[in-house]
């Protein structure tokens, strides 16, 4: 371990970066970041950690232990810092103010991620494609698209999902639960994000501003779709022809045209086959039935000739 003691203030300096520590033991733990050493292994899974305290917190995920209880609601947490962050929901405290806009945040994590929207920083690149992401969480979820991994299985149907939160929201379709109530109307929703988007219809808030023009949007997905007008990007490729589309909706609508055409073609072939069967009977005898009737009811044309009425009936082709 490369260390040096700085005399005068008795701090321990890391030899691989510019960090320094008051205690040698703290430096040793820090040095594991550089060496990759993780001596504390979880007995429930294959994860390992640089510090014993981190292992202890992780183990609570397996045991379900949540010793930090909120005094204002029934929620409890694995660690003290999570409780502190949660408490700000009740107090309304948002100490992290964005310098680019008027938004403020309860945690430094959400604040940092938000700032990247303004700076354009996406430090988490995908190893399978050229996409990169603002958060490691978003990257992990994206990678599941490449791997096809959907570890969260619905217990009510055969659907599975990449994200746990998506499964929770989906399950509410089966249970009918809509716990997120709009404070301005009588609508309620299965998930918090949908309520958030809905609320913007009342407030008129459109926080997602286009960098190419003066349009703004209530949803980031709508901004992304709009931006493709400027960039000319068309990521949705038709599998039936060479057309491409900037919007998934347009792509799906186009595919339906192909499906309808295929359906009509199949029906036309079926009709041609039936018509051929009918015309193949052209050399067959036509049987005429004269039904018995009351002789007094037979009409004449006034000259002694019988009036014969020929009825045309449709041929049953099906």
Can you describe this structure?
Residues 12-39, 40-67, 68-95, 96-123, 124-151, 152-179, 180-207, 208-235, 236-263 form the C2H2-type domain. One of its GO terms (molecular function) is DNA-binding transcription factor activity, RNA polymerase II-specific. Belongs to the krueppel C2H2-type zinc-finger protein family. Krueppel is a gap class segmentation protein. It is found in: Nucleus. It is globular, with a radius of gyration of 36 Å. Among the domains are: 1-64, Classic Zinc Finger (Double Stranded RNA Binding Domain, 2-Layer Sandwich), CATH 3.30.160; 66-149, Classic Zinc Finger (Double Stranded RNA Binding Domain), CATH 3.30.160.60. It contains 9 helices and 19 strands. The strands form 9 sheets. Strands 1-2-3 form a 3-stranded antiparallel beta sheet, with helices on one face. 1% of the residues are buried. By secondary structure, the chain is of the alpha+beta class.
């Amino acid at each position: 371990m490369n260390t040096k003691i700085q005399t005068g203030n008795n701090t321990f300096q890391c030899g691989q970066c510019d960090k320094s520590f008051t205690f040698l033991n703290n430096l040793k733990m820090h040095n594991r970041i550089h060496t990759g050493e993780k001596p504390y292994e979880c007995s429930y899974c294959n994860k390992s950690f640089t510090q014993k305290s981190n292992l202890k917190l992780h183990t609570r995920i397996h045991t379900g232990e949540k010793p930090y209880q909120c005094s204002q609601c029934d929620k409890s947490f694995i660690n003290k810092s999570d409780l502190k962050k949660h408490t700000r929901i009740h107090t309304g405290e948002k100490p992290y103010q964005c310098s680019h806009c008027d938004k403020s945040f309860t945690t430094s994590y959400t604040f940092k991620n938000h700032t990247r929207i303004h700076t354009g920083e996406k430090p988490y690149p995908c190893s399978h494609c050229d996409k990169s992401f603002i958060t490691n969480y978003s990257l992990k979820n994206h990678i599941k698209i490449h791997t096809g991994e959907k570890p969260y299985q619905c217990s009510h149907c055969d659907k599975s999902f990449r994200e746990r939160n998506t499964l929770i929201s989906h399950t509410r379709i089966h249970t009918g639960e809509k716990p997120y109530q709009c404070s301005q109307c009588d609508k309620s929703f299965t998930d918090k994000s949908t309520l958030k988007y809905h609320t913007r219809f009342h407030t008129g808030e459109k926080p997602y501003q286009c960098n190419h023009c003066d349009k703004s949007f209530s949803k980031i997905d709508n901004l992304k779709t709009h931006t493709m007008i400027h960039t000319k990007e068309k990521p949705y490729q038709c599998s039936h022809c060479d057309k491409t589309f900037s919007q998934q909706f347009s792509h799906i609508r186009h595919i339906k045209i192909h499906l309808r055409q295929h359906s009509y073609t199949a029906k036309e072939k079926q009709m041609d086959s039936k018509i051929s069967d009918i015309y193949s009977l052209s050399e067959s005898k036509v049987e005429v039935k004269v039904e018995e009737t009351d002789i007094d009811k037979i009409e004449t044309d006034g000259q002694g000739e019988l009036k014969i009425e020929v009825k045309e009936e449709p041929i049953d082709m099906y």
